[in-house]
Amino acid sequence: MYSEKFRDVEQQKKLGELAKVRYEDFRTMKFESYMPKFAKQVIEKYFELGYEIGIISQGTPSLQRRKFDCLNIKDFVNSDLIFFNEKKTIDFYQMVKNTIVEKYGNLELIMIGDREDIDVLIPKSLGFTPIRILGESKYSVTKTLTDYKQFNNFEELFNNLEN
After folding, report:
1. Containing structural domain, residue 99
2. Within a domain: residue 154?
3. pLDDT, tens digit, 9 for 90 and up, residues 103-126
4. In a domain, 26, yes or no
5. Rounded to an integer, what distance in angstroms lies between the CA atom of residue 163 and that of residue 107?
């Protein structure tokens, strides 16, 4: 038996929305502990080298924003270069490139990611320089190209930047 205060459909919707927000907060509250070792150091190093740092992330934009906020890298990332989208597509990457070129002109665009299909092949086709982190995930197999820089993990990339 439900309490009278929960019989109203609007009240149920509000409670459902509140539960969803709290669940998303819970999922991302400790996201920085999931950040791959040396990933933040790589971001900091590129920043020190004078690069404008941006983030391109796939998934629900509100969840991606929460993840980003939890990573504690805001000081290194240009807020004009944060792009969250449900799905990374060639049209999405083209929009990202156009936005960057409009604001900063033609400059070298480096894309660091782990997925060959959407983090390497699509950006490469649009003129980005891809760097792939192989890692140990389901995306770690190279299927198509090998003519781009690959590193086993962020530590290896970081050590390469040190040289």
Report:
1. 31-162
2. yes
3. 998 888 999 998 888 899 999 999
4. no
5. 22
Which one-letter amino acid corresponds to residue 27?
R
What is the domain count for the chain?
1
Q: Is 54 among the domain residues?
A: yes
The Cα 162–Cα 26 span in angstroms is 36
- Give Cα 5 distance to the centre of its chain: 41
User: Which string of DSSP letters, residue by residue, matches 50-90?
Assistant: TPPEEEEEES-HHHHHHHHHHHT-GGGEEEEEEEEESS--H
**Which CATH number covers residue 37?**
3.40.50.1000
Written as tens digits, the pLDDT of the chain (163 aa) is 556 665 666 777 787 888 877 777 666 666 666 677 888 899 999 999 999 999 999 888 888 888 888 788 899 999 999 999 999 999 999 999 999 999 998 888 999 998 888 899 999 999 999 999 987 776 666 666 668 899 989 999 999 997 6
Question: Looking at the domain assignment, is residue 22 inside a domain?
Answer: no
d(CA 61, CA 34): 19
CB 152 within 8 A of CB 135: yes
Contacts of 71 (CB under 8 A, 6+ apart): 31, 32, 35, 40
